[in-house]
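Re: [help] complex structure
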Amino acid sequence: EPEVTQTPSHQVTQMGQEVILRCVPISNHLYFYWYRQILGQKVEFLVSFYNNEISEKSEIFDDQFSVERPDGSNFTLKIRSTKLEDSAMYFCASRRTSGGAYNEQFFGPGTRLTVL
Amino acid sequence: SQQGEEDPQALSIQEGENATMNCSYKTSINNLQWYRQNSGRGLVHLILIRSNEREKHSGRLRVTLDTSKKSSSLLITASRAADTASYFCATVGSSNTGKLIFGQGTTLQVKP
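Output below.
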């Protein structure tokens, strides 16, 4: 069964450093998302991506964040200058489209980002 | 903005019992979905119910939706120890991106 994969599973970085989190969505999916979950809190939407551009972003997704789909298979989230409060689990998700009806999203296993 | 609130926050039951989790939200929705998260792992989609549906079944899962009360419930029948996990409701609203807005979740412990 196809699945969303994410690398690395755990990333430790120093405050102020840049990190890139990588995701490979399911191949025939067209919508891509990043969410984050701070320890003990709920999952929060960061950004959605469709047709090679951001379709929606949350207030969390400020200028420090960017997303890219560089090669038609990978989907990346870059944080330019990490802060302590960026420490969280980051989930990538993808969704197919069918007849305009929204359907379920398939989530990757997550990348745990620890900013020291 | 819409927000799912779930209750209870934590639920502990014996294997074989039924577990009911509730979710409320604030704004109109296109659909409501339930996801499961095992400790430290990713989210697994369980079931989706559209705004024009009132009840849906999938195996041991039963979901209801009351749009007049802006609430949903997830019933897991004949629970098993393997059902131990956190359960989240997530709503999809009028945004055409399909983004999910998650609730706080219910932590379910099923004791063998």
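Chain A has a mean pLDDT of 92.
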